[in-house]
Design goal:
Length: 198
């Protein structure tokens, strides 16, 4: 019978840790040391390739023991062919949310999984679509002041958005939250043989 392994999460994100625990994983977290600003989107053929590479570099920036299941992930928001990462300040957060309102945008989350006794990592990604309502400047300011979304791609977290923010979304909400948990579950299940002897 397949037993879910303990995971070392190369992230300080409470959202990703909570998702993993919600789905039955034991989680320890460690900070990655990769500088995300060192990669340029223009060097990659697509936003998916870009975010997958960030997840990979995060995973490889952590000290790794070969009997550990190591997971790193990254999320980006794409609107009008522009990638919106984590806002650096209030003004940028306000600019991002203003750009998103009243239109559809994409959220892409990728993960890199390093498995025991496997030299090659497994890297996967998932895309969801989100449509914002039109927002007033007061609603945007209130959200930023209340939730301080400076650690979130696109300057928002869907799990904390007021009801009037989101018109609709398609795809997995977990992708939007930052971890494609269903793809991760299946990936780990498909690789379950590596855990038998641990």
């Amino acid at each position: 019978m397949f037993t879910k392994p303990a995971i070392l999460l190369a992230s300080s994100s409470p959202r990703r840790s909570d998702i993993l625990k919600q789905f039955g994983y034991t989680v320890d977290s460690v900070e990655h040391s990769f500088n995300e600003d060192s990669l340029l989107i223009d060097d990659f053929p697509s936003p998916r390739d870009y975010v997958k590479e960030i997840a990979k570099q995060k995973a490889y920036s952590v000290s790794y023991h070969n009997n550990t299941v190591l997971l790193a992930a990254d999320t980006i928001v794409v609107c009008d062919h522009t990638i919106l990462g984590k806002p650096k300040n209030y003004q940028q957060a306000s600019s991002y949310l203003s750009m998103l309102q009243g239109k559809a945008h994409y959220v892409i989350s990728a993960f890199c999984l390093r498995l025991p006794f496997k030299d090659r990592p497994i890297i996967r990604s998932s895309l969801s679509t989100v449509i914002f309502n039109c927002l007033t400047s007061h609603q945007i300011d209130d959200y930023i002041n209340t939730h301080k979304p400076f650690d979130k791609a696109g300057a928002y977290g869907i799990q904390e958005c007021p009801p009037y923010f989101i018109s609709s979304y398609s795809g997995s909400i977990y992708t939007i939250m930052g971890l494609p948990i269903y793809i991760l579950n299946q990936t780990i299940k498909d690789s379950h043989q590596v855990f038998v002897s641990l």
